Amino acid sequence: MLKGLDPRLNAEVLYTLAAMGHGDMLIISDTNFPAQSIANETEAGELLRIGNVTAGEAVEAILSVFPLDTFVDDFAGRMEIVGEPDTIPPVQQEVQAAIDAAEGASRPMVGIERFAFYDLAKQAYAVIQTGERRFYGCFMLRKGVIPPDA
Q: What does the alpha-carbon distance between residue 112 and residue 13 come to, in Å, rounded to a whole number?
């Protein structure tokens, strides 16, 4: 255990988050997502896990060390519900609340059609599978930068 780090973040996840560069994409997935097969196609090439937590809890932990990109509109995305692209289910509301808390302001995630999300995920740096069992608990986060001290 280390001081100042969220205990939900394991060594493999921390290593990967630190290795990512500005603009790299991170996929946070639920338990139903084809995480292993898609993770095999990512830059990291292996599936990471933060088990026994919801997507919202995982995103909250990740955003404690991971800056979001402030230069693009698609800094974060959510998998749209098939046939209901504008519906935001509770799992997505929880992740949006974690993003808003980390950002200190409301920045809505972009919606990504289900199959477009799968294609996008294959271009990501890494995939982290959570213990989230609710449907549509899949998200994309784009890494930002940490500015120098003033």
A: 24
* Residue 86, C-beta contacts closer than 8 angstroms, at least 6 positions apart: 111
Q: Residue 126, SS3? A: strand
Task: List the end-to-end C-alpha distance of the chain, in Å, as a whole number.
Answer: 30
pLDDT of the chain along its 150 residues, tens only?
A: 679 999 999 999 999 999 999 999 999 999 999 999 999 999 999 999 999 999 999 999 999 999 999 999 999 999 999 999 999 999 999 999 999 999 999 999 999 999 999 999 999 999 999 999 999 999 999 999 998 998
- What SS3 class is residue 133? coil
Q: What b/e sequence results for 58-87 when a residue is b if at least 16 CB atoms lie within 10 Å of its CB, and e otherwise?
A: bbbbbbeebbbbeeeeebbbbbbbeeeeee
Catalytic residue positions? 22
Strand 126-130 relative to strand 47-50: parallel, antiparallel, unpaired? parallel
